[in-house]
C-alpha cells in the first residue's frame, strides 16, 4: 500500500472514530439524548413521584403583546421547580386573540435526576397528555376566560385570551396550571456505558 493510500485510510479511520464518538455522546449525554432515553425507558428506571403538581405564574404587563400582529419572543424564566425551569417562550397577538406559549426545560443529568412533565410517561415508551388544566385570574383574583389552548410538542403548554377580555390582563395576570407530573429517573447499573447499541438504533 502506497504512503498516500495509507494516509487516506488513516484520515478516513480518524473521521469515523470522531463521528462515532460524537454519536455516542449525542445519544447518551446531551439533554436531547437523555430525555429521549428517559421518556422511552431505554436504560433508565423511571418512577412517578407526584401527580398534577400545580404551578402559579404571574405574567407581567410588559410581556403582553397588545399591538396588532405583535410577537414577543421572550424566553423569560418565570419559575423553577423540581429541577425544571419554566419559561414564557413567546406571546403573539394573532388578531383574534393574544396567544401565550410556555415551555419547560429539565436540568438533565446522565446518571439520575428529577423532572416535571405535563403528561404521563407510559412503560411502552409512549406518552399521554392529560390537559390542559389551567385557570387564569387577574391581580384581584377574578377569573379570566380561557380561549384556545393546547399542550406539546416537547414539555410545553399554551393558551389564548380573546379580545373582549384584554382589559382583564392590562395589569398582568396569574396562570394556574396543574398538569405537571414529577418523575425521578436513574440509569440502570447494567446499562451504564458505553451505549454502543444506541448508535445503531
Strand and helix layout:
Blueprint: H1 3-28, H2 31-39, E1 44-59, E2 71-81, E3 84-93, E4 98-106, E5 112-117, E6 120-121, E7 127-128, E8 134-138, E9 143-144, E10 149-151, E11 156-161, E12 173-187, H3 196-199
Antiparallel strand pairs: 1-12, 2-3, 3-4, 4-11, 5-12, 6-7, 8-9, 8-12, 10-11
Helix pairs in contact: 1-2
Unreliable stretches, pLDDT < 50, 5 or more residues?
A: 24-28, 192-201
How large is the count of helical segments?
3
Shape: extended
Q: What fraction, in percent, of the residue positions are helical?
A: 10-25%
> What profile does the largest beta sheet have?
5 strands, antiparallel
Instruction: Report the span from N to C terminus.
Output: 35 Å
Beta-strand residue percentage: 35-45%
Mean pLDDT: 85
The number of strands is 12
Rg value: 22 Å
Structural class designation? alpha+beta
Strand-and-helix sequence, N→C? HHEEEEEEEEEEEEH
Question: What distinguishing features does this structure have?
Answer:
201 residues; alpha+beta; five-stranded antiparallel beta sheet; 3 helices; 19% helix; 43% strand; extended
Provide an overview of this structure:
Helix content is about 20%, strand content about 45%. The chain has 3 helices and 12 strands. It has helices spanning about 5-30, 30-40, 195-200; strands spanning about 45-60, 70-80, 85-95, 100-105, 110-115, 120, 125-130, 135-140, 145, 150, 155-160, 175-185. The strands form 3 sheets. Strands 1, 5, 8, 9 and 12 form a 5-stranded antiparallel β-sheet that branches. It has a 5-stranded antiparallel β-sheet with strand order 2-3-4-11-10, with no helix packed on it. The chain has a two-stranded antiparallel ribbon with strand order 6-7. A hairpin with a 2-residue loop joins strand 2 (about 70-80) and strand 3. The longest helix has 26 residues, at about 5-30. The chain is extended.
